[in-house]
From TrEMBL, chain A:
A Pfam cross-reference name: LbH_EIF2B
Residue ranges, annotated region (Disordered): 141-161
Gene Ontology cellular component terms for the protein in this record: cytosol; eukaryotic translation initiation factor 2B complex
Subunit field text: Component of the translation initiation factor 2B (eIF2B) complex which is a heterodecamer of two sets of five different subunits: alpha, beta, gamma, delta and epsilon. Subunits alpha, beta and delta comprise a regulatory subcomplex and subunits epsilon and gamma comprise a catalytic subcomplex. Within the complex, the hexameric regulatory complex resides at the center, with the two heterodimeric catalytic subcomplexes bound on opposite sides.
Family to which this protein belongs: Belongs to the eIF-2B gamma/epsilon subunits family.
Gene Ontology biological process terms in this record: cytoplasmic translational initiation
SUPFAM superfamilies the UniProt entry points to: Nucleotide-diphospho-sugar transferases
Nucleotidyl transferase domain sequence ranges: 5-148
Protein's recorded name: Translation initiation factor eIF2B subunit gamma
Signal peptide range: none
Residues annotated as transmembrane: none
High-level lineage: Eukaryota, Viridiplantae, Streptophyta, Embryophyta, Tracheophyta
Protein location: Cytoplasm, Cytosol
Primary subcellular site in the record, as a coarse category: cytoplasm
UniProtKB/TrEMBL annotation, chain B:
Species annotation: Actinidia chinensis var. chinensis
Region (Disordered): 1-85, 159-284
PANTHER family linked to this entry: NAGB_RPIA_COA TRANSFERASE-LIKE SUPERFAMILY PROTEIN, TRANSLATION INITIATION FACTOR EIF-2B
Biased composition (Low complexity): 40-53
Gene3D superfamilies per the UniProt record, alphabetical: Translation initiation factor eif-2b, domain 2 (3.40.50.10470)
This protein's name: Translation initiation factor eIF2B subunit delta
Domain of life: Eukaryota
One Pfam family it belongs to: IF-2B
Bias kind Basic and acidic residues: ranges: 161-170, 183-196, 253-284
Single GO term (MF): translation initiation factor activity
Biased composition (Pro residues): 23-39
Similarity comment: Belongs to the eIF-2B alpha/beta/delta subunits family.
Keywords assigned by UniProt, alphabetized: Initiation factor, Protein biosynthesis
Length: 459, 654
């Protein structure tokens, strides 16, 4: 279908410290005991997209990600892993791999996306309107990636984070305005010309930009070439395209010339007339109406381009792993309400317990839980709505609620863990009480200590 | 709008005769079931000669004593066939006569188009009579000079003067017309015989042609011969050859004369019927093949069960989701299909051009797989694209013709042509088709039609037709002073876009909805309509509502000019808009945009006792049409079969 797929897998994200580290780049963070990147890759594979370019920040991370992909998908996918320097942003990453891009359109997917919206739908909407960019929007998750949540607990006083502010046309097909909630200080500026052309704009805050974009390659590369300062797709490129959609400076090949064939009848050459035939009888978007000018035939039609959106329906799952809160949420959802994403088969009790896991007597594992391969649990333990990784050793009388415990974690007797994330190779000694904490890889929590809302990591 | 419902009128007492009847003689009544409401025609009276053109053949056969065998053979058969027809179609006694004769004469026309062929035109009584009628109907004396006219020119001119003189005074005109027409009728014998020969030849050719497209493009442009009756047949497989004769129109045409193909020929000729969607087995099979998953709508109107109707809103997301799965589909084809499905592209020309351009892209990127020949493999490819389009939205007749053209070109490619050359040839052929058949044709139509617009005219158009728009704009540019009335209808309100463009160009316009058409028609001097297709019995197949506008215009004696490119002509004969039509989204008609308070039908779609019907097309009988403006000139609707026959081949095989 003449689409190329670029997966931006990122590197070590600052928001996710201490979960990520040099050993575990963001793309390999486990969600229900599978790297988060696998969700993206499988989601693309389901749509028959098997030739992918995965862009990773940093050589080390690229090596790790590449190693994992080649071991897991060796015979299924054709993946090229490209390493780009750190901190060049998403736009910079695309600029760096520009020479790989040859197809007519490019699908850019964020590597931390966990969703079940068919990417084909976005691509189809993109093609249908012949847009320069199509963004996928999904309804913002309820418990959401708000910074307030329990991440660190320091910013509890902060208001719940604002999401994107998105302006749509009445048909909900075109993007008229986009701003990230966090960037908006007090007021937003909407262009009058766009407002006048559309007539009516719907401003919504309940939508989230899913970081899945379809770009027209020629346009994307033109912008990346012209605007050296653009760093991020979301913050720079997309708002720029949306802003300039009615006074486009882009040289759109072909498509634009066809649309603007509304000259005087005498001077109509056949080609213009033909395109007029198509244009007049097809329902015009406001772009065309605006390009034609107020009375339907401006002498010099304005250049316009279209920025479309695809709004995923509410019953689809879509989330991004871009904060610690989101990490917990996604882990919970993937084995909970969005369990079809995990690819595991659930037991009758609605949980997954690997056959090699050993449970002590009177130990209960509640529904929506996952117990990895080779894990051992002592007596009288209780696990609720949590994910436990591989080869964990858990003592007796341990309570784990709403938490994620990664691989090779040792937990002593009488511990209580609530709403926490515990990374690999952590050792919790006896009677540790953790509440809303993150424990970095390899950390040792001494016996009897109690932490609440803290981030523990090796210095 | 399947049949014209004629009742007796003071101004225009037209009577339809049923069955066999003698040449006009005083006090004659139809020999079939009588039409009580209609005043019985008197010889030489207006009604005698102002019959619709379709009425002509029977008197002709009777009057010129052509061959005793023929005359003997015909009457009984006709008598037999008519009651069947009328009983099935319309039980009301008032209309029995009308319906019967209408059907029958339609078939006469359809199968013997030669009566007005260029070769036999001169001195052919039928044609002159037709044109007389036609003049009377237009009542303006403005008719084409571009029709190559022959010996009957004089008569026409006379008629023209007459009708111009006495516009609106029905009886007088027609008296004079009658006297004009009569002498022609007397010396018809020779021409008549020729006409008959011609018609025989034509039917043979038509039969051959009918078979060819049928075999090469099954389901693409099916020649639809089944009528409303055969629709009710439960199984299609069975009903094609043996039951077909039962279908009234076919029955009529078979028994019409000795020159019709025999029944066993017909068996071979019968084209594969189009998919009947009330046949469960077939629908199941088709579903398994289908690319687009469709949910069928539950409540469908009984009479239209045979047409595809799906739950709208389920197809698009499904197709979108499959975007990357559909490997064999070319992106351009896919895009156009999506646009059809989403309703972004509509209108006969636009859809056809979009499709051809998609094919062009696909052919450009095509490469023949190893051990296959281009002609065969590409045809298969095109077929798969076409079935994809059909799934997105049923094909229009214009698209069917274009596909037929393309396939014929592919089939005719010389075998020794290299692949790149073949592709280049095909691309240029497609370009040529678009240019010649659509763009240039439109230009020619505009040039012709503009001659019919005079200062002070009030032109009415319905919906939004691209060629009508061009005509109006061009006439405006020429400085003609006229006013435009745009009649529109829900739910699409296409007229608004047209209105916007016309007003933008400075034309003075009136915008109204079809509800008010009878009011606005008082001031209108001409009606310009577009068409999705013109069928060979002169029926105009067009946006639903067109027939209503044409009928009102006819009632008000306003000439109706239909503008249609010749590539949209089709040899099919259709008497009603039931047997083949398209159903739109039924939910659209229950919603009123911008009026949240009009919500009486919300969530009622699944009520068992509610059926919504959103027809997209209707058929306008040729009686209501004064003239068809096409790229071959301005012709009466009776001349459509000539164009189909003479130039139809050229479309496909040129």
């Amino acid at each position: 279908m003449d689409f190329q797929v670029v997966v931006l897998a990122g590197g070590t994200s600052k928001e996710l410290i201490p979960l990520v580290s040099k050993e575990v780049p963001k793309a390999l963070l486990p969600v229900a005991n599978r790297p988060v990147l696998s969700y993206v890759l499988e989601f693309l594979e389901q749509s028959n997209l098997k030739h992918l370019i995965v862009v990773v920040e940093g050589e080390d991370a690229a090596l790790r990600v590449g190693g994992w992909i080649s071991s897991a998908y060796v015979d299924r996918l054709h993946v090229e892993v490209a390493a780009v320097p750190e901190d060049i942003g998403t736009a910079g990453a695309l600029r760096a791999i520009g020479h790989y891009l040859t197809a007519h359109d490019i699908l850019v997917v964020s590597g931390d996306l966990v969703c079940d919206v068919p990417p084909g739908a976005v691509a189809a909407a993109h093609r249908r309107h012949d847009a320069v960019v199509t963004a996928m929007l999904c309804s913002a998750p309820v418990s959401g990636p708000s910074e307030s949540g329990s991440s660190g607990g320091k910013d509890k006083t902060k208001k719940p984070g604002r999401y994107n502010i998105i302006g749509l046309d009445p048909t909900k097909q075109f993007l008229l305005f986009i701003a990230a909630g966090a960037e908006v200080e007090k007021d937003i500026r909407v262009q009058k010309s766009i407002l006048r052309a559309v007539g009516q704009m719907e401003i919504r805050t309940d939508l989230m930009d899913a970081h899945l974009y379809a770009f027209k390659r020629s346009v994307l590369q033109e912008i990346l070439g012209q605007k050296e300062s653009f760093q991020s797709l979301r913050q720079d490129v997309l708002p720029y395209l949306v802003r300039s959609q009615l006074r486009s400076e882009l040289s759109l090949d072909g498509a634009q010339a066809e649309e603007n064939g509304n000259d005087k009848v005498v001077s109509l050459d056949n080609k213009a007339m033909r395109s007029q035939l198509v244009a007049n009888t097809s329902s015009p978007s406001f772009h065309e109406l605006c390009a034609m000018g107020p009375n339907g035939s401006a002498p010099f039609p304005r250049n316009t381009h279209k920025c479309c959106v695809y709004i995923a329906s509410k019953n689809k799952y879509c989330a991004r792993l871009n904060s610690i809160q989101a990490f917990s949420d996604i882990n919970r959802d993937v084995i909970g309400e969005a369990s079809h994403l995990s690819g595991y088969s659930f037991s009758a009790h609605n949980n997954i317990i690997h056959s090699s896991a050993e449970l002590g007597s009177k130990t209960t594992v509640g529904p929506q839980c996952m117990l990895g391969e080779g894990s051992q649990m002592g007596d009288k333990c209780s696990v609720k709505r949590s994910v436990l990784g591989r080869h964990c050793r858990i003592g007796s009388n341990v309570k784990v609620v709403n938490s994620v415990i990664m691989n090779h974690v040792t937990i002593g007797d009488g511990c209580s863990i609530q709403g926490s994330v515990i990374c690999s190779n952590v050792q919790l000694q006896d009677r540790v009480v953790l509440r809303d904490c993150q424990v970095g890889a390899g950390f040792v929590v001494s016996a009897g200590s109690e932490y609440k809302g803290e981030s523990l990591a090796r210095k | 709008m399947d049949t014209p419902r004629r009742t007796s009128r003071v101004i225009d007492p037209k009577v339809r005769h049923v069955g066999f009847f003698a040449p006009p003689s005083p006090g004659r009544t139809p020999s079939g079931p009588p039409a009580p409401a209609a005043p019985s025609p008197v010889s030489g009276s207006p009604s005698g000669n102002s019959l619709s053109p379709v009425m002509i053949p029977p008197p002709r056969h009777a009057s010129d004593n052509l061959s005793s065998a023929l005359t003997l053979h015909q009457p009984p058969s006709r008598r037999v066939s008519i009651p069947v027809t009328s009983a099935v179609r319309r039980p009301s006694i008032d209309n029995v006569a009308v319906v019967g004769s209408y059907n029958q004469s339609e078939t006469v026309l359809a199968t013997s188009p030669s009566a007005i062929s260029p070769s036999s035109r001169i001195g052919d009584g039928e044609f002159s009579e037709d044109s007389v009628n036609w003049i009377r109907r237009t009542n303006s004396g403005k008719f084409s000079s571009s029709v190559p006219t022959g010996g009957f020119d004089v008569a026409l001119n006379k008629a023209q003067e007459v009708s111009e003189k006495g516009r609106g005074k029905g009886p007088e005109i027609s008296n004079e017309l009658a006297s004009n027409a009569k002498p022609l009728k007397d010396k018809m014998t020779k021409a008549e015989r020729r006409a008959l020969q011609e018609s025989q030849r034509a039917t043979k050719a038509a039969a051959k042609e009918g078979r060819k497209p049928a075999s090469s493009s099954r389901g693409v442009a099916p020649v639809h011969e089944q009528t409303a009756k055969s629709v009710k047949q439960p199984s299609q497989k069975k009903d094609v050859p043996p039951v077909a004769p039962v279908a009234p129109s076919i029955a009529a045409s078979e028994k019409k004369g000795g020159d019709r193909p025999l029944e066993k020929d017909r068996k071979k000729d019968a084209p594969p019927p189009r998919m009947q969607f009330d046949d469960k087995n077939r629908v199941e099979k088709a579903k398994r093949r289908a690319v687009v998953k469709k949910t069928e709508a539950r409540n469908r109107v009984e009479l239209f069960r045979h047409l595809p109707q799906y739950e709208h809103g389920t197809q698009l997301p499904d197709l979108e989701a499959k975007f990357f799965q559909l490997d064999p589909m070319h992106p351009a084809v896919y895009k156009v299909g999506l646009q059809y499905l989403a309703g972004d592209v509509f209108g006969g020309n636009a859809r056809c051009v979009a499709m051809l351009q998609a094919f062009r892209e696909a052919i450009k990127d095509y490469c023949t797989p190893a051990e296959k020949t281009l002609a065969r493999d590409l045809t298969a490819k095109i077929n798969s694209y076409v079935s994809f389009f059909t799934e997105c939205r049923p094909l229009s007749i214009s698209m069917g013709n274009a596909i037929r053209f393309l396939k014929a070109r592919i089939a005719k490619l010389p075998l020794n042509l290299s692949e790149s050359d073949a592709k280049a040839t095909l691309c240029s052929e497609i370009d040529r088709f678009i240019n010649e058949k659509i763009v240039l044709a439109d230009k020619v139509i505009v040039r012709h039609a503009v001659t019919k617009i005079r200062d002070g005219d009030v032109l009415l158009t319905y919906g939004s037709s691209s060629v009508v728009e061009m005509i109006l704009l061009y006439a405006h540019e020429l400085g003609k002073k006229f006013r435009v009335v745009i009649v529109d209808s829900r739910p699409k309100l296409e007229g608004q876009a047209l209105l916007r463009r016309l007003v933008g160009q400075g034309l003075s316009c009136t915008y109204t909805h079809i509800n008010a058409v009878s009011y606005i028609m008082h001031e209108v001097t001409r009606v310009l309509l577009g068409a999705a297709s013109v069928l060979s019995n002169g029926t105009v197949y067009s946006r639903v509502g067109t027939a209503c506008v044409a009928m009102v215009a006819h009632e008000f004696q306003v000439p109706v000019l239909v503008c249609c490119e010749a590539y949209k002509f089709h040899e099919r004969v259709q008497l009603d808009s039931i047997c083949s039509n398209e159903l739109g989204d039924p939910n659209i008609i229950s919603k009123v945009p911008g009026r949240m308070d009009v919500n009486y039908l919300d969530n009622w779609a699944n009520k068992d006792n509610l059926q919504l019907l959103n027809l997209l097309y209707d058929a306008t009988p040729s009686d209501y049409i004064s003239m068809i403006i096409t790229d071959y000139g301005m012709v009466p609707p009776t001349s459509v079969p000539v164009i189909v026959r003479e130039y139809g081949k050229e479309h496909v095989f040129m």
